[in-house]
Each structure stands twice: as C-alpha cells, then as structure tokens.
Amino acid sequence: MKLTGAQILLKCLEKEGVDVMFGFPGGAVIDIYDAIPKSPVEHILVRHEQGAIHAADGYARATGQVGVCLVTSGPGATNTVTGIATAYADSIPVVIFTGQVPRSLIGNDAFQEVDIVGITRPCTKHNYLVQDIEDLAETIKQAFYLARSGRPGPVLIDVPKDIQSQVYEFHYPENVEMRSYKPTSAPHIGQIRKVVKLLKGAKKPLFYTGGGVITSAAHEELTWLGKQLSIPVTSTLMGLGAFPGDDDLFLGMLGMHGTYAANMAVNNCDLLLAVGARFDDRVTGKIDTFAPHATIVHIDVDPTSIQKNISVQVPLVADCKSALSALKEETEGTVGDFDWAGSHKEWVDQVQAWAKEHPLTYNDDTANIKPQFVVEKIYEITKGDAIIATEVGQNQMWAAQFYKYTKPNTLLTSGGLGTMGYGFPAAMGAQRAFPDKLVIDIAGDGSIQMCIQEMMTVVCNKLPVKIVILNNGYLGMVRQWQELFYDKNYCSTCMDAQPDFVKLAEAYGADGYRVTEKKDVESTLREAFATDKPCIIDIRVEQEENVYPMVPAGASLTEMLLV
Amino acid sequence: MKKHTLSVSVENEPGVLSRVVGLFSGRGFNIYSLNVAPTLEKGVSLMTIVAEGDDGIVEQIVKQLRKLVPTIKVKDLTELKSVDREMVLLKVNAEDSKRAEILRIVDIFRCKVVDVSVDELTMEVTGDQGKISALVNLLTRFGIKEIARTGNVALQRSMQIDL
Predict the structure, then answer these.
(1) Is 80 exceeded by the pLDDT of residue A69?
(2) Where are the domains of chain A?
(3) Is-contact A27 A154, C-beta < 8 A?
(4) Prediction ipTM score
(5) Which of residues 123-142 of A touch B (CB under 8 A)?
(6) How far apart are CA A346 and CA A324, in angstroms?
(7) Are A449 and A50 a contacting pair, CB within 8 Å?
(8) Closest to A536 (Cα-Cα) out of A499, A563, A502, A488
(9) CB-side exposure of A213: number of CA atoms within 13 Å?
(10) What is the C-alpha to C-alpha distance for residues A435 and A437, in angstroms, rounded to an integer?
(11) pLDDT tens-digit profile of A452-493?
(12) CB within 8 Å: B19 and A121
C-alpha cells in the first residue's frame, strides 16, 4: 500500500494503539494535519505547545502508556523543550513529532528552522531526524519501543516537510531489533538471594521506593512484601501511590519535606531497600549522613543510577517489577515458618511512635484558611478516588503530604525538573484518558498562570478538570526560603497583582468559584467537583504559611525544622 | 586522578559523536583525547576516548556511555592488557647548526621526516604516551613550532596474561 509520509506517520500511530495526540499545527506539519481527519487517531488542539507536551506526559503518567505530541518546526519545537526535559527527568514515555523544514533547506537558517535534534539531545532518551522516507516507519517503531522499554523516557522524531508529502510503500515492522540497545529486565538471582538473607538478618528494614515502582507497575508486589514481611515503607514524591498511603506501615514521603517518621526511619534503619529511586539530593539531604547505619540494597533498571550519588552494598540492576516478584517468590515460602512480624515488631513500634510524636500537622488556630486544610478536604471528599496533578512549589508539597495516595498513577507531578505550569495541562491529558474520573490540579496562584491558556482547550474539549488554586499571593516556596534563609527579603515573590481568577474562568467559558471563608471550603469543593464542567476554585489561603517539616538544603535528614 | 582509555564501539549514525561529547560536557566529565573512525564492520565506528577521573567518575562515564542508545560496547582498557598508540606530527626549528642533532633524535625515536625546508623539519612519530612525551621534551629546546596529535587509539591484547 503506497502512502504519503504524513499518512505513514498516522498509520504507525494507529498500529501502536495511540488513540489521541496533543498538538498544534504549523507550516512544517501542515501535510500531517491534512491527513488527520481521515485517521482514527484523535487530535486535541492545545493553545501552546508546552501544553501539548505536558498533556501527553500527563496522559502517559495516568495510563502507563506512551503519550504523543505533534508540533511544527522552529518555535513549535522549542516550546516543547521544557516539557520534554520534564518527562526526561521523571522517566515518562512520550513520543514527540516535530515538523522540520524541507531537507533541501536544512542548515540554511530557513524560516522556522531550528536544530531541534541538537537542542533536545541531552533531554531525550533518544531522538531522530528522518532523512529518508524509507526509514520513517521503522524509526517510529523504534521510538515507541525506546520510549516505553528499559528506563522509559521521551523520544523525539523530527520529520522534514518534504518527507511528509513523499509517497512510499507502507510496511510497519513487527519487531524491533537494535544491536546497541538491550535493556536488562530480569534480576540476578544470586543478588535476590543475598537480599533475602539480609532481610532475615535485619532488625530494622525499610523500603525507600520511587517512581520506578509505578513505572513498572510493581505496586502489588511492593504492597505484598511490605505487609507480609512487615517492613515499613517510605516513598519519594514520584513513588507516592505505589504503597497504600493509608496503611499503618506507610510513613509518608522522606527527604526535604518528608515526615519526621520517614526521616528518622532512614536515619536509624539497618537495611534500606531502595527500589526504583535514585537518591536525589532533595531526598538524601547531606549525602554523607544518609542512612548511616544501613546496608543499602539498590534496585533500579538503569545501571547509571546505581553508585551514582551514594555507594551501595547490594546493587541490583533489574526492572522493579521483576525484582520485587523474584523477592516475593523467594520469601513466599518463609511466611509460615519465619516470624517476620515478630522479628520487626520492635522496629515497627518505634517507627509508629515517631509518627505519633510528630505527625504531619499545621496550626489551625486562625480564622484564615490553611492550605493544608484544603488538601485534607480534597482527600476527604474524593476519598482518594481521583487523579491529582500538582504544579510546583508549596502546593506540590502540601498535595504530597496531606493527600493519601492509595493507588499508583494517581499523582501527576513534576518531581525531577520541578516545572511550574506542568500540573494543569498534565491534568488535561489525564482527563482525556479517563473522561469519567475526577481530575484535580492542585495549583498555586503563581504556577497556574504559566499554562493558563489551556483553559480554552479543556472548555472546548469538554474536559472537566478542576483547578484548585491555593492562592496565597506569593511564589510561596521561594518566599519560604527567603523568609528562612534570606532575612525575609521577599524580592520578586509577591504576586498580589493577579487576575480575577473567577472572571478568568468565566471568560474562557468555565466555572469560577472564590472561597475566602473556612466554612465555605468544603461545600464549594463539593459543588465544583459535582459538575461536569472545568472550573477554577480560587481559595484565598494563609499568605505566609510554610511547608514543614523542612530539612534545609545540604543539611542531614535529622536536622528537620518542625511546625 | 588517573587517565583511563575507553574503547567505545558505536553505530555510525548522524549525531553519535555529538551525543558522546555532549555526555561528557553535560555531566562535567573531562576528555583528554578522543579519536573516532569507522571499523571493518559495516555501520560501526570505534572511538578511543582517554578520560580523567577517579574510579567512581570513570564507572559513571562507562555506564553513561553504555546508556546512549547508539552505543554497542564500552571497554575500559585501563583494566586490561592493551596496546595503545598515538601518532604525532611535529614541526621543529632546524637551522643548519641544529639539524644533525635533531636528525639523530629522529633516528633514536624511529621517527620519520615527512617534510623539510630551509630552517624547519616536520616529523612523524608513533608511540605510546611515554615515548611521545619523551620526544616532545627532547625537542622543546630546539623550538617546536607546531604539533598535531591524533589522540590515542588502542586495542585490547589478544593474550590477557602476564608474560
């Protein structure tokens, strides 16, 4: 069957099972857009390319499938760079198609020409410039395979305009064979047995889990191991939802804004099982004093993550799911005769005592609305049955601390890169994947303005995303640092000049709500969540509230500032 | 900080050199020298990279190189028995009174004179790092006007035994 390059591209998407892509047209992709109406793949027109890439990313995080984004050359392509770097930092599978000027013009500084392959080389897992129509289908096949296999990540394909209109025989390869790319997935059984032995000898074991557990869908295995072997679990921001957040063995997040119990547990454990996490500086604090008494086991699919920031005693390169399944298999037989609960009882009691001693809390003795209170209410109303997206900053930390994630893929947040403006378009992508689910973006008044234009996209596509703005009139996290470490020099963090968010929502054709009284928080949230329209709920919260606990940057995890 | 010689075979595709070099600059690793050329196997190029760093850094470099999609194989030859050679072209001041002495050195080091003019000699020399630095040291006093080096190329020895 002979098809144009544009048709081949769309046909490949169909073969990959893609049902939707997010994009924005332009001169260099007009041939592809010309073919879209005849393709079953739905296209959602965003209002800015950054929205498209974040939406594809949000779709990928919520579904576990590859998200797809299509943009034009030049500025269309460069507008996706922040989103690509966001997906790269959090290992999210996304395929980005960018238009390119015709091959004859490449390198000539043509109109809307940019070397997007060069620009995105350090922030993609891999990228391609298609130089020949013969290679187009195979390149797309490889891109999807690369994006979702091993440690997932974004893959970009730059398609010159003349290739889109060339005609060629369509053949989609069944398999991918790349001699240079063979990711490891199965664990080394000798290492697994070593871990089991360590587990049996450990008095104070602790799971420290990250986004890898969610990426590889190892949540059931993790939950089984945690509960059956009686091992407390702490998670990074990216790992929230892999282990039930309402379980007694769950200590909450660790690190800079981690719980007292989690950080104390890290400091005192004798065996730390790091699974799909990468010892990021926001997690470890001062690296020399991190988990000082522990033997560390590190399970990760990416060998570069192991021994990068910290030296570990038992490295285990494997996909988290196969590693945890193997651990489960090796320990399943012991559950009857080895008293796991008994041997860890003292430790579990200790950890729970820490949790009681300093639970996550805030002073609620004012008339003002506390942002933490709003997040708690969102959890109460949804009972955890919602997809939560966050922006970046205080809103993100409160959303991580005061909402209990009980299922994987229910928290969409830019953990590695920390991209303000991520949450709302990501929520949009997730809402498109799950039209009947409640999808809430917990936002700040600063970050919501970074991709606010997508209000139009959610309205016209009937994607009822609920944006809850914890409006404190500040770029709150930077203000918090200024307060604590820069003598309250609030330079450029006061955002008291801001739009009327209610009118703004209405201008886009969405609903707008404003809450200024504590008593109205719950009823307004309930009302807004019950409608089938997108909306902004502008909640005026305590202006100078801080996120606690806080470990100052570079300090040890035990040096927590508490409420 | 020790120098490590890494032998890296890669798919010979557009941008592969830039991926490797970008990895070094982006992660703050140091490249001492880099040589790249096609091999006999179709579509495969061999890079010989001399990099500096402590063991942890070199371990990261090796892993990061392996992680690049077009990388087929990475070997740290420093850990293995290997032969490594570099070729250098040197242009040296050689007025009449010094010429004989320079030619003697050329002889001792088994260099080859490849160009000559009234007051200059250009020579080609091949050797390992020790030989090259010794020669450079000896010729410095005559005045080395220009130098061009290929950077190391290296291969693992077939017999990995101590003789």
Answers:
(1) yes
(2) 2-169, 189-357, 371-540
(3) no
(4) 0.91
(5) 125-126, 129, 131
(6) 25
(7) no
(8) A502
(9) 32
(10) 6
(11) 999 999 999 999 999 999 999 999 999 999 999 999 999 999
(12) yes
CA distance A437 to A58: 14
Here the tokens at position A317 are 């390169």
pLDDT tens figures, A128-182: 999 999 999 999 999 999 999 999 999 999 999 999 999 999 999 999 999 999 9
Domains annotated on chain B, with CATH: 2-80 (3.30.70.260), 83-155 (3.30.70.1150)
Report chain A's mean pLDDT, rounded to a whole number.
97
For range A316-334, the mean pLDDT: 96
Assess whether pLDDT exceeds 70 at residue A220: yes
Q: Which two structure tokens, joined as six digits, stand for B29? A: 């690793």
- Superfamily for A371-540? Thiamin diphosphate (ThDP)-binding fold, Pyr/PP domains (3.40.50.970)
Q: Is the domain A2-169 a CATH 3.90.79.10 member?
A: no
Q: Helix or strand or coil: residue B66?
A: helix
Answer yes or no: A177 catalytic. Answer: no
Determine whether A49 is an active site residue.
yes
Closest C-alpha among A140, A154, A145 to residue A92: A154
A183/chain B closest Cα distance in angstroms: 9
C-beta neighbour count of B38 within 10 angstroms? 11
- CA–chain centroid gap for A95, Å, is 16
d(CA A532, CA B19): 47
B56 touching chain A per CB within 8 A: yes
Task: Give the pLDDT score at B94.
Answer: 94
Dihedral, A67, A72, A76, A81 alpha carbons, nearest 10: 40
What are the tens digits of pLDDT across the range B61-120? 999 999 999 999 999 999 899 999 999 999 999 999 999 999 999 999 999 999 999 999
Assign domain A189-357 to its CATH architecture.
3-Layer(aba) Sandwich (3.40)
Tokens 């041939």 — which residue?
Answer: A31
**Mean pLDDT for the stretch of residues A359-378:** 96
SS3 call for A311: coil
Active site residue A402: no
The single residue listed with the structure tokens 């604590």 is A484
CA dihedral B44, B48, B52, B54 (to 10 degrees): 60
State the pTM of this model. 0.96
- What is the C-alpha to C-alpha distance for residues A316 and A318, in angstroms, rounded to an integer? 6
Q: Which tens digits make up the pLDDT trace of A522-559?
A: 999 999 999 999 999 999 999 999 999 999 999 999 99
| Nearest CB to B56 within list A122, A129, A307 | A307
Q: Do A304 and B18 touch (CB under 8 A)?
A: no
Q: Would you call A161 a catalytic residue per the annotation? A: yes
- What is the distance, to the nearest Å, from the Cα of residue A473 to the centroid of all Cα atoms in its chain? 26
pLDDT exceeds 90 at position B1 = no
| Cα–Cα distance for residue pair B143/A156, rounded to 1 Å | 51
Nearest CA in chain B to A179: B72
pLDDT at A403: 98
The whole-number pLDDT of residue A336 equals: 84
